[in-house]
Structure of Thioredoxin-like fold domain-containing protein:
Amino acid sequence: MSKGKNAKYVPAKQSNTMTYVLGGIAVLVVIVVVIGGVLLLSKKEGTPADKAQAAIDKATPAFVLGRADAPTKLTFFEDPYCPACGNMERANGEQITKAIEDGKLQIKYFMLSFLNRNSPSGDYSDRAAGGLLAIAKSSLPEDQKQKAWLGAHTAMYANQPEEGKGDKTNAEIATVLSDGAKAKGVELPADVTAAIRDGKYTVESAQNAGAGSQLMQQVNSTGTPTVIHNGEKITVQGDWLTPLLK
């Protein structure tokens, strides 16, 4: 039978199944796009270790010991008044020094001073670190400067005051660091020992400590000693250093 002229066209109903399929595909596309964006952003930002190492690489340490092409690179956060830092130096200092001098290890040192408050003077950490800074800024040849600094660093912890009770005057710090340098065969110039006695770099060391504390937070650590390798915190227990040396 023929349809009338005024008959309306009525489209066939779409299948509910097809509607659900198309809707599901649209949702999947959105999910894939979102996940892809998250993964891309994550890849750009890197892992937590990548972020930590990037922060370290941007920072300016007060002290860098060892060759730039050393196969193993570490970052140390220490406080001259920290008993655990003293324990680490006494346990591993000789191995660390040898690895640096053999060209196997480079260390970036950040000296902090949050334990100043526990010293009777209120600023022992900054003054001791200032003494090391005086050596680092000296006119000694680079090889002699490194030997002097390593010797002074060892002596600083070997003669570390007892936390909460002990302290040292600037003159005493100068004697300790000078003797440490001398033990490595280096005589500190008179202007360096004078700078230590006068506390010439105490304020600068305090500023360095503040920046170092902020950096330590960025690498997700809260205490000293902190040792970082490739952006990851190393547990300083037992023979922890040997596996890292290449």
About this structure: Residues 1-5, 8-12, 32-43 have pLDDT under 50 and may be disordered.
